[in-house]
Amino acid sequence: xxxxxxxxxxxxxxYMLFAAFMFSxxxxxxxxxxxIPSVEVVFFRAAISLIMSWLYLKRNSIPVxxxxxxxxxxxxxxxxxALIMVFATYQNMPxxxxxxLHYLSLIFTAILASILLKERLFKIQYLFFALSFVGIYMIKxxxxxxxxxxxxxxxxxxxxxxxxxxxxxxxxxxxxxxxxVFYFPxxxxxxxGIGSFFVWVTPHGADWLWLLAVGVxxxxxxxxxxxxxxxxxxxxxxxxxxxxxFYALGFGYFIxxxxxxxxxxxxxxxxxxGVILNITFKRIKWIPxx
Length: 290
Hints:
By secondary structure, this protein is mainly alpha-helical. It is built from 13 helices and no strands. It has one domain. Helix 9 runs antiparallel to helix 10. The longest helix has 25 residues. It starts with a helix and ends in a 5-residue tail after the last helix.
């Protein structure tokens, strides 16, 4: 049974599932420091990630700056813009609702990869994506705690996240996963540092531990997310990350006491149905014919 399950879950999907769990822990840490501006949280996250990535690259004698500098830089820039916006939604919206909104980046990834990278999408997949969009629309419509400002920020962050993930896919054959990860903090640190200068809030006490957790768990998640996009088609791998909905619901309820109306839960279920159908269809479609 265990062997069968591992056979069904490809390496790319397994990497993404683990990355989703690590990101979920990071989400909790971000929400725990909601009194600190999101751009400052990104600054600390980038500083920790830069050190960890650089040490790993040096220890393994991997060239730090890679070869495709233009795309690497764009990956870092897109990711920085996305993360500042996404962290703001995590801090100011119910956790599961914010996570589901961010998952639009995975749909944008599939669409952008089909346009920019010529990865094939079948027509029926757009129906599956539509189910997810309907679910997200229901979440916004029935959750009065979601302010329009943060909803718009979430949409913009999702789009830039899709651009970042598509860039990762483009780099699959030319760069080491840790080099791709390294370029995010390399770009994010100066950008977020300048932004933090104008809104700085000095962390106190447990804030430092939560900020450390943001950096460490995100670093682990980024490594496995990058590996996932490098070993499998973006449209397939991206969808697996939606499992984080369950993590967010659980953490939101037990840690932050967040509850949801039935219609909001139904919206989340629609998102998940669209994802499961897409994953199943993609795997069946690519099974070799004998």
